[in-house]
Design brief:
elongated; single chain; 132 residues
């Protein structure tokens, strides 16, 4: 089965899981940002509040993966074949993250990269015909 055709959906799922975890774990920080009125709420007493910056970027990254997944899936549905470089990119990023943060969701990217690199049945048939 060609799982590459679901790559966008897998990426959307990764983004949703990432965002849910961010909201759950970052809830106290988000509440304090809300109490600060959101506008410039990452600056407290003239200094950057790292926990507020971190949750902002954590949730922004989750949203980016959702948007990227929607775009990727739309292109796949229109016949676009994701380049192998995307699969390798996911694997390299996952490998670096797994080394730095072994207990993380980076394994999702390892799997997604591998699925993009796996040839579809049609690609296997074409390869077999060209070598025969």
């Amino acid at each position: 089965m060609n799982y590459t055709k679901y790559s966008g959906y897998f990426l959307i799922g990764t983004g949703v899981i990432h965002s849910i975890i961010g909201v759950l774990l970052g809830w106290p920080t988000l509440v304090s940002m809300h109490e600060s009125g959101w506008l410039a709420s990452t600056i407290v007493n003239g200094e950057m509040a790292f926990n507020r910056e971190a949750i902002l970027w954590f949730l922004t990254l989750g949203a980016f993966w959702i948007v990227f997944g929607l775009c990727l899936q739309k292109m796949i549905d229109q016949g676009f074949i994701p380049p192998r470089s995307l699969g390798w990119g996911f694997i390299v990023i996952a490998a670096v993250l797994i080394i730095i943060v072994p207990v993380s969701g980076a394994y999702f990217f390892l799997i997604q990269g591998a699925l993009i690199l796996m040839p579809s049945r049609d690609e296997q048939l074409v390869a077999a015909e060209t070598t025969a």
